[in-house]
């Protein structure tokens, strides 16, 4: 399966048709390069707040409330594009109202045959907690695309091993990570999380990122990080785990011409690497469960 992860330079669309036209052009670009699955970044829907007047798009709470009126258009757009382009699409994320004034950060997956699946973000960042209107998800999913089992970890979720391990134990072979980070430290944390999850579980990881500086949005103000396709660091695979990556999100010279990191993921080959693995973290994972290793004991030198 050829997979594309997007470095999405956040813009300022005048209206929903303008947003739709740009997204369509980007996805068509990925499809023309042979992609069967495309991953867009976290908070993609917040770009649509630009279509509302300043009192709305400069206020996060007002933006979230206003965006709900576009949810139907959002679903229709990506359903239609997935079918017409014959492309599975992770549509970044949309902060969906689940109760009056309460939202979940939902990553929608639209399949080429018309299905609509989803994964909510499970762990909230400090920014999301401070908003006081965003709630964590309460369910973990694995989906099947063309016979490949995939899961989604929304940005910060990629930094937590146990839910991703649960997805792997349900057969996941590819982790999809729509992300949005505004500092180099944040971008590094998510990248390290993605590499660690690939190493621990012998899986591929596709990470999408937002890019650029945005002066009109309090939520999308600065965006950094590299979109990438990642693999375990083992025999027959890249030593640094990087199959493909884009320029950094803050590189103003890299526009939509370098929007995609693309790689063909060979799942049979990945499985075959188990036989000559230098290490096998996925196989040796249960070694952590020994009762005597569940708690550490303070060891003191005599006379200390």
From TrEMBL:
GO terms for molecular function: hydrolase activity. Pfam families: CN_hydrolase. Signal peptide: none annotated. The keyword Hydrolase applies. Residues 1-267 form the CN hydrolase domain. PANTHER family: HYDROLASE YHCX (PTHR23088:SF50), NITRILASE-RELATED (PTHR23088). This is Putative amidohydrolase.
